[in-house]
């Protein structure tokens, strides 16, 4: 053994001891030499000497090292300020401990300072980049090797031990060398083995939950190595936290759940007795504790999964109970825990129990829990698509219809992501296509039915376009999925799909129109062009979720000057492949720029304009799929229906697939669908018609009625120029088949369709066909027929054949083109009238009752169909019988008729007056029909309100409202007045009247209080105004067919007025509708003598005071009939419509006593036809706020109108040369002086001046009694009211009340003053040949005079002025020019 290092240390130590104040440099030099020498000195025990020799060596080393020990313990050296000196001294100390072990090199009194020096060196271990790190690591290694730190426990340096632990945790780093961590771990574990304590355990646990990897990893190592030593202290800590956390004096008590989880990760055995305490926390009343316990338990389950669940089964059961915890936070935490457990153990049996708990939370009362359940289920399904329970996915999909918007949004986003993952798996053939996942798109499609701004159909369409499939999914793969998707469709799905495609088609069509207009804008910059562009933009904006914002974006887009943008947009409208479409969209967005402010809108626009859902590529793939073998019949049918749904909207998409279509002609199972496809898209494909001729002809003769109908359409669309020849040959074949009695029902259908496509071809054999129908088919007889079920009419075979023949005849009057009919429509209508009345098709033929029901129903439906084109020829009797089918004895007939009426009204294919059927069925004994009637009526009102608003925006206000649902009361009142069940004159039972008038009340209620207008006060008030105008107009007319029915009309009009007022939404004034109220001349005419109203009585008031409440309460209903809306009305608080003097006044008197208005303010004069009638406006109309801003309204046949300018003398009118002068009376009613007047002007001798009939709801067609001209500058309507073609000129005026004149002021005015005052508010009308009306005053002295200026033109002429004006006679011999002068003088007088 070399003694040189030992001697060097001894000499250096002696030398250093002699220096009182050593120089720093010399000190550092000496310490370096000593440190290097000490490292070279071996421990005596490590030498190869024998025992005695080892002892001698140990003594020798101790003696040699004594000087150095004495130098180190000097106070100034242990506490030297220089860090390098301290480090070298630490190295020497550590080596001395090593060399002299097991003896301590220093006395106990110096050991504390020595260990502090060592700890100071350890505190610098974090700086691995320091040049002294190696020496510090050597000190750590030396201390660990000699285990000298244990000495601190012997010298009562426990605080230094605690500091040592804290120092190690503070300096340890993840990037430290393993030897460094190992030495630290050895030192701490050696101390814990000797003397563990709670303080040391707390330090370890505190560092265990740190986020830094170094301290937490070191703590894990210590716990794993010293688990037995630490176990009592750790368990004690957790037990204290579980039992009495508040008493624990440790900062860890607030996060003990986290500590427990970390300890369990590294030493689960240590916590076997602690874990069961969690069950108590799961049941505690403290929500935060339950949440933490659930979160901890979830982590533990995810950590050890099935093993933990088996070891702690009670705890696992309690966790499942937390899914139904009363706290939302606990339930949400339980869901998170279950998610972690399932991901860690997807195949274990307990996972099924967890998933069943998820299913229950999908119906949780809290929307946050439901949303979280959907999100977690989708995440779990994506992580394990192959084995995840598909039923749970279906249940989660139902949350797309959740009542909360937030749940629907999250469900939609996650389900779309799940479906894309599923599509990718299927494309990789890792899993098969399953119906459970394919239900996701079907439910997404149904979001279009949700009435929500966030889930409008436009938003759902974007989801289908952009998010349904992965962007790189091929057309073939998309087709595979579409085939399975549509196989799950219900009729409602198909309807929604058609709606989505129709909206896309409308946008594309309008975009093409817009681009075309923009191209022509440079050549034509007229105002009309700009108006068309604005109109086109408005239509396109309606296809976006926010139309107003979209319209702004369109206007900004319209300002772009880059033509390439619009050229690319035009290319997007073409039928492109999926890859080309994506490329063009990127090109379009690149032209726009990433920083464009409307980038999001333009992205959506490029998507909507393109064929992103279906294109010709997908259609071709579907056709190929149909041709493949092994395809189930259901999928075949669904695939064919998909093609039909697409080509019905986009027929051009079939182009390019002609070969595939022709290959399917041999498949009889798809014949019907294929024929319909050809009917829709036959004109858009390029084929030889001869390839399809035989197939289509065979379907026309041998197919079903539905197929034959489409086959004829397909022939007409594909035949091209040879259409007439082919149809003529087909018609001859069909007639031959008809003679032979072969497939008569199909042949009749085909013949009817040929008549619609080519009437001239049909008429070649028309007489023979009609003769066959009338003489053979209609005369078929069957003694008995099958019974009628509650669901359908089981008519006999011969009855069905009669109905088919009837349909053929009806179709011959409804050609698509042309109007040259050889058989008169009147004959057809006479046949239908007979069927409606008797249910028989021919005299002398026995027909059973079931067949009669079917025939009457078929006749009524035929009238509906014919009303589209022949409404002007349909008599009131036919209309009444048709509408009364809604009250037929058979519920099947009523249901079928109402459904057909609704269907045609929705298409605007028949006039709105047929909606009367819904009112007649509103109180049907069948609850389903009552609900259907309300729904149907709501649909019609909504449609017409939407259409009217659009028409007003585009074309201004309409002059009449004959197309509005409110106008149907004109016909409903007429139907009720001619009903055989109208109460008798002697009837004084208000319940009888209430029940009879219930249809009228129901209509008024639907128009003013229905759910569809509940939040639309403007719509409700508009309907109130129109209804009042109609009722007042009817009161000034009489029955055109049966004058005896006039009193009934007026009774119903009076009751209608009272009903409207009783249902008025609010106390705000409602303006009367401006413009004429046109009454149909076929039903109403002017009454030559207006019936005088009897003054009111208390009996009459009591009667009407009882009538309306009974009507609202619905107490007249049959037993068991529940009227929900009547119950709602009973809950309404009574609303005051005016003053107390204007209460609802009704009579309990015979029939003639009820012919009165709601008050006695109207007094009618007995006048002759063609005379100017004068009515005082009822005070109810003014005082109840129903005539706001309108003081007096001149009504043309009971119509409210705007004021008109006087016509010049050059205008002419047909007038009567002889007139009678009536008395103009005014009466005081209920303390109100009648100062306002309704004026009705009639200009035609011997007949009413306005007989314009109700316009058709389709294409606004009128009858021959129609308005043929309108002079806007004079507000004059020119009507052709008679078969002779004579014309009437009608002028509607408004006389406004002087705003600052009261009734008392008028009483004190002279005639001249009143004339001058009123003339400033009235327009004058010059009409030849009207007699003079004399002045008259009432008992109060109020002037109620109207004067007529008489002018001479040939025989006589008259000049009509405003009320109260002084009369001026004009000589009978004045010429036309003189009439003009009078008009001008009257104007000056007004000034």
Automatic annotation (TrEMBL):
Tagged with keyword DNA repair:
yes
So which residues are the signal peptide here? none
Where is region (Disordered) located? 1115-1136, 1354-1391
The alphabetized UniProt keywords are: Cell cycle, Cell division, DNA damage, DNA repair, Mitosis, Nucleus
Return the Basic and acidic residues bias intervals. 1125-1135
Give the UniProt entry's GO cellular component terms.
chromatin; nucleus
Q: Which Gene3D superfamilies match?
A: Leucine-rich Repeat Variant
Q: Enumerate the HEAT repeat regions by residue range.
A: 274-312
Q: Name one GO biological process term.
A: DNA repair
Can you tell me where the transmembrane regions are?
none
Q: Where in the cell is it found?
A: Nucleus
What InterPro entries does this protein's entry cite? ARM-like (IPR011989), ARM-type_fold (IPR016024), HEAT_type_2 (IPR021133), Pds5 (IPR039776)
In which broad location class does this protein mainly occur, judging by the first location in its UniProt entry? Answer: nucleus
Its protein name is Sister chromatid cohesion protein PDS5 homolog A
What species does this protein belong to? Linum tenue
Q: What is the lineage of its organism?
A: Eukaryota, Viridiplantae, Streptophyta, Embryophyta, Tracheophyta
């Amino acid at each position: 053994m070399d003694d040189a290092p030992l001697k060097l240390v001894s000499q250096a130590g002696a030398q250093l001891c002699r220096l009182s104040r050593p120089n720093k440099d010399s000190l550092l030099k000496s310490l370096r030499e000593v440190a290097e020498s000490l490292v070279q000195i071996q421990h005596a025990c490590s030498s190869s000497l024998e025992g005695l020799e080892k002892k001698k060596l140990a003594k020798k080393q101790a003696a040699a090292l004594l000087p150095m020990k004495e130098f180190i313990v000097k106070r100034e050296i242990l506490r030297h300020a220089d860090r390098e000196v301290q480090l070298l001294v630490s190295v020497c100390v550590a080596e001395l401990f090593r060399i002299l072990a097991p003896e301590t090199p220093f006395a106990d009194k110096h050991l504390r300072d020595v260990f502090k020096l060592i700890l100071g060196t350890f505190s610098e271990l974090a700086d691995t980049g320091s040049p002294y790190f190696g020496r510090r690591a050597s000190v750590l290694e030396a201390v660990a090797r000699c285990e000298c730190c244990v000495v601190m426990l012997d010298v009562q340096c426990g605080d230094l031990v605690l500091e040592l632990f804290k120092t190690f945790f503070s300096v340890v780093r993840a990037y430290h060398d393993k030897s460094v961590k190992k030495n630290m771990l050895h030192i701490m574990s050696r101390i814990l083995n000797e003397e563990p304590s709670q303080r040391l355990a707390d330090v370890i646990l505190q560092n265990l939950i740190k986020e830094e990897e170094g301290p937490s990893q070191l703590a894990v190592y210590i716990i794993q190595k010293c688990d037995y030593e630490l176990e009592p202290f750790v368990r004690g800590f957790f037990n204290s936290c579980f039992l009495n956390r508040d008493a624990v004096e440790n900062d860890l008590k607030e996060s003990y759940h986290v500590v427990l989880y970390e300890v369990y990760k590294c030493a689960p055995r240590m916590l076997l007795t602690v874990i069961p305490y969690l069950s108590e926390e799961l049941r505690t009343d403290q929500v935060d504790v339950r949440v933490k316990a659930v979160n901890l338990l979830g982590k533990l389950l995810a950590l050890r999964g099935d093993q933990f669940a088996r070891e702690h089964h009670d705890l696992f059961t309690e966790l499942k109970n937390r899914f139904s915890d009363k706290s939302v936070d606990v339930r949400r935490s339980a869901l998170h825990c279950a998610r972690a457990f399932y991901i860690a153990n997807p195949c274990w049996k307990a996972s099924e129990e967890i998933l069943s708990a998820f299913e229950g939370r999908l119906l949780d009362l809290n929307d946050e829990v439901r949303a979280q359940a959907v999100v977690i289920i989708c995440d779990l399904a994506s992580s394990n698509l192959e084995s995840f329970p598909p039923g749970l996915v279906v249940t989660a999909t139902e949350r797309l219809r959740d009542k909360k918007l937030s749940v629907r949004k999250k469900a939609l986003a996650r389900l779309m992501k799940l479906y894309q993952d599923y599509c990718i798996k299927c494309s990789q053939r890792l899993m098969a296509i399953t119906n459970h996942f394919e239900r996701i798109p079907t439910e997404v499609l149904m979001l279009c039915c949700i009435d929500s701004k966030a889930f409008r159909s436009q938003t759902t369409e974007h989801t289908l376009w952009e998010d349904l499939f992965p962007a790189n999914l091929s057309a073939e793969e998309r087709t595979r999925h579409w085939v399975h998707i549509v196989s799950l469709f219900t009729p409602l799905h198909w309807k929604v799909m058609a709606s989505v495609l129709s909206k896309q088609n409308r946008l594309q069509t309008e975009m093409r129109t817009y681009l075309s207009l923009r191209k022509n804008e440079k050549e034509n910059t007229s105002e009309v062009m700009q108006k068309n562009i604005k109109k086109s933009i408005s239509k396109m904006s309606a296809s976006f979720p926010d139309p107003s914002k979209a319209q702004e974006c369109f206007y900004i887009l319209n300002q772009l000057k880059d033509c390439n943008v619009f050229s690319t947009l035009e290319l997007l409208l073409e039928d492109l492949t999926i890859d080309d479409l994506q490329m063009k969209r990127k090109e379009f967005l690149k032209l726009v720029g990433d920083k464009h402010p409307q980038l999001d809108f333009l992205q959506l626009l490029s998507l909507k304009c393109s064929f992103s859902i279906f294109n010709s590529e997908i259609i071709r793939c579907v056709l190929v799929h149909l041709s493949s073998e092994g395809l189930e019949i259901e999928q075949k049918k669904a695939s064919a229906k998909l093609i039909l749904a697409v080509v019905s909207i986009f027929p051009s998409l079939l182009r390019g697939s002609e070969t595939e279509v022709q290959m399917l002609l041999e498949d009889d199972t798809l014949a019907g669908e294929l024929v319909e496809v050809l009917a829709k898209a036959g004109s858009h494909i390029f084929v030889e018609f001869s390839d399809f001729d035989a197939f289509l002809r065979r379907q026309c003769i041998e197919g079903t009625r539905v197929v034959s109908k489409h086959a004829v359409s397909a022939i007409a669309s594909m035949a091209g120029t040879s259409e007439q020849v082919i149809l003529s040959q087909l018609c001859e074949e069909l007639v031959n088949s008809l003679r032979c009695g072969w497939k008569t029902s199909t042949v009749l259908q085909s013949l009817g369709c040929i008549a619609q496509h080519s009437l001239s071809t049909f008429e070649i054999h028309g007489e023979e066909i009609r003769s066959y129908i009338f003489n053979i088919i209609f005369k078929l007889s069957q003694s008995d027929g099958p019974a009628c079920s509650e669901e359908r009419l089981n008519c006999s075979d011969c009855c069905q054949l009669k109905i088919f023949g009837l349909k053929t005849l009806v179709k011959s009057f409804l050609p698509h083109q042309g109007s040259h009919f050889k058989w008169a429509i009147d004959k057809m209508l006479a046949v239908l009238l007979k069927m409606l009345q008797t249910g028989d098709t021919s005299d002398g033929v026995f027909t059973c009752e079931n067949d009669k029901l079917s025939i009457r129903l078929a006749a009524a439906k035929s009238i509906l169909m014919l009303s589209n084109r022949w409404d002007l020829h349909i008599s009131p009797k036919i209309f009444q019988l048709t509408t009364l089918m809604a009250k037929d004895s058979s519920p099947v007939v009523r249901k079928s008729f109402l459904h057909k009426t609704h269907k045609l009204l929705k298409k605007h294919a028949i006039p709105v007056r047929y909606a009367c059927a819904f009112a007649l069925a509103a109180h049907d004994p069948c609850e389903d029909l009552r609900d259907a009637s309300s729904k149907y009526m709501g649909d019609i009102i909504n449609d017409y309100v939407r259409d009217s608003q659009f028409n007003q925006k585009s074309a201004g206000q309409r002059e009449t409202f004959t197309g509005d649902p409110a106008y149907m009361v004109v016909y409903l009142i007429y139907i009720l007045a001619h009903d055989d069940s109208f109460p008798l004159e002697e009837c004084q039972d208000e319940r009888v009247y209430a029940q009879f008038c219930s249809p009228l009340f129901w209509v008024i209620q639907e128009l003013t209080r229905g759910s569809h207008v509940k939040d639309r006060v403007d719509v409700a008030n508009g309907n109130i105004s129109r209804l009042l105008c109609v009722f007042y107009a009817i009161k000034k007319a009489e029955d055109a067919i049966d004058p005896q029915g006039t009193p009934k009309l007026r009774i119903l009009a009076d009751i209608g007025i009272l009903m409207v007022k009783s249902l008025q939404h609010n106390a705000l004034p409602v303006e009367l509708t401006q413009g004429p109220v046109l009454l149909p001349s076929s039903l109403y005419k002017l009454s030559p003598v207006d019936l005088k109203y009897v003054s009111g009585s208390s009996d009459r008031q009591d009667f009407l005071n009882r009538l309306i409440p009974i009507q609202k309460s619905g107490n007249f209903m049959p037993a068991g009939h529940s009227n929900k809306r009547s119950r709602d009305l009973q809950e309404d608080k009574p609303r005051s419509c005016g003053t107390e003097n204007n209460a609802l006044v009704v009579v309990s008197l015979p029939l003639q006593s009820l012919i009165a208005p709601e008050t006695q303010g109207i007094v009618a004069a007995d006048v002759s036809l063609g005379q100017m009638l004068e009515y005082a406006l009822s005070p109810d109309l003014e005082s109840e706020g129903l005539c706001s801003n309108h003081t007096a309204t001149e009504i043309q046949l009971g119509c409210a109108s705007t004021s008109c300018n006087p016509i010049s003398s050059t205008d002419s009118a047909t007038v009567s040369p002889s007139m009678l002068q009536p008395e103009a009376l005014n009466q005081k009613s209920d303390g109100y002086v009648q100062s306002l007047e309704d004026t009705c002007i009639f200009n035609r001798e011997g007949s009413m001046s306005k007989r314009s009939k109700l316009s058709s709801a389709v294409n606004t067609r009128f009858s021959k009694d129609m308005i043929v001209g309108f002079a806007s500058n004079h507000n004059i309507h020119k009507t052709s009211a008679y078969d002779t073609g004579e014309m009437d000129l009608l002028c509607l005026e408004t006389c406004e009340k002087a705003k600052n004149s009261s009734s008392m002021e008028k009483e004190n005015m002279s005639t001249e003053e009143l004339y001058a005052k009123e003339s400033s508010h009235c327009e004058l009308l010059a009409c030849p040949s009207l007699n003079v009306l004399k002045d008259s005053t009432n008992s109060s002295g109020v002037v109620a005079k109207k004067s007529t200026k008489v002018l001479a033109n040939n025989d006589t002429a008259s000049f009509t002025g405003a009320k109260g004006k002084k009369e001026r006679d004009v000589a009978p011999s004045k010429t036309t020019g003189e009439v003009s002068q009078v008009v001008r003088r009257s104007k000056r007088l007004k000034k």
